[in-house]
Amino acid sequence: MAVNKRNQNKRSNILVITEALLIAYMGYISQFILVQLGMTREVPIEKLVVNVGLLTASILVCSLSVGLYEAKLRETFRGIIRRIFVSVGLSYFLVEIISRAFFDNLAMHPYYLPSAVCSVIITLVVFRYFTNRLGLLGLGKIRIVVLGAGERASIIEKRMRRDVDRIGFELLGFVPIPGDNREDGVKNEKIVHVKVDENFQQFIADNDIEEIVIACDQRRGTLPIDVLFESRLRGIEVTDLLDFMERETGQIVVNLMYPSWVIYSNGFSSQNYLRDALDYSLNAILAFCIFFFVWPIMAITALIIYLDDGRRTGTPVFYRQERVGLNGKLFKIIKFRSMRPDAEKDGAKWASKNDDRVTRIGHFIRKYRIDELPQLLNVFKGEMSFIGPRPERPEFVEKLVREVPYYNQRHNVKPGLAGWAQLNYPYGASVEDSMEKLKFDLYYVKHQSLLLDILILIRTVEVVLFGKGR
């Protein structure tokens, strides 16, 4: 454990030094750029050194205070971005107060501090992305052991097979627990045969274990409460399988959920009251801005659809269809028609990736999401948001509510033009696919925030531009 502690401290020290150099460099380069743009004049070197040093020191202290250099920080990338904004924001006011109170003669041009702060935020966010997401410096990577080797534990083996799936942790192995369903359990992972008794603490210490994941099939009478209690007192993280999967995969494993986990979780209702209050205004403004740029594309698309088969068949260019919205309320979604007029002559069917009902122009506009553009009107009407679970048809919802547990919870938020599930899972053409997409939809419902919306929006733009629509 001592060796592990030294390694953690070494990684944290490297992180502090590296970020200090980045902050200092951005403080210098901000002044250089302002001078080159003619927005300020050159200043004596000692004046610049004092200001850069003060900015660097204050950001490091504030980052330390919000836990950004905590060796065992288990935070999502969005959480890290929030902490960076808070720490740099606090530093801004701290530097302003100190420089005005004690170094008034060394105060820089009014443009300097805002530009330096903005450049530092961008730099730190990009740097943390690579260090945390790509495992550079070993940051955020911890050693874990899984208690359980049965059916529940096998979800880790099945869903996290690739190295990229395990970038945040090093898995020592699975410890079988009495009551595990070994027949349907872990097959190809390392099984650690060790007794989970009073000697288990020595095993943890010898292997530098930092987190224990609880994934046994039977808890009552088999879970070693005393051992886990002692481990927690020693600073070892003890995490439920559902929380572990939610943290590492960005989805909620619906088929493994149990009532007590839901009761003690944050629930599936938004607690972000400011975001909720500004929801319609932000979506309407964004919809107007996008419509301003895309209306020529929409006009050309409508004309092509009309000339392709609309003129011949008399079928409308737009397609209106009933969907289930917020709190189960029905509304009419508006899209460019991408299928043949007789697409549903045999009743409602799931859409599939290579659907033979799609027209020639339909393949193109579906690939680049152009068929979704008329839904801007649904956004203006307040029926949809830009980001949220995709709205489903009532005929399918009735079936899915009966067959998929917790399916109705996805209606706790407005449906959206783009969603977390669409970025992580392909077209859903069955109840099984709906179950998989629901895991991502519930993750969004539970973690909805402005930062997550921005992340989804950016990734959706990438999907559209490179034609990787799902």
Task: Outline the structure in words.
- The chain is α/β, with parallel strands linked by helices and 470 residues long.
- The protein folds into 3 domains: 2-138, no CATH class; 142-249, Rossmann fold, CATH 3.40.50; 273-341 and 351-465, no CATH class.
- 52% of the residues lie in helices and 9% in strands.
- It is built from 16 helices and 8 strands.
- The chain has helices spanning 2-36, 45-65, 77-102, 112-133, 154-159, 200-206, 225-233, 241-249, 259-264, 273-313, 360-367, 376-380, 394-403, 420-424, 431-447, 450-465; strands at 142-147, 169-175, 211-214, 237-240, 318-324, 330-336, 385-387, 416-418.
- The strands form 3 sheets. The chain has a 4-stranded parallel beta sheet. A two-stranded antiparallel ribbon has the order 5-6.
- Strand 5 (318-324) and strand 6 (330-336) form a beta hairpin.
- It is flat, with a radius of gyration of 27 Å.
- The protein starts with a helix and ends in a 5-residue tail after the last helix.
- Pfam families: Bac_transf.
- Keywords: Membrane, Transferase, Transmembrane, Transmembrane helix.
- This is TIGR03013 family PEP-CTERM/XrtA system glycosyltransferase.
- Belongs to the bacterial sugar transferase family.
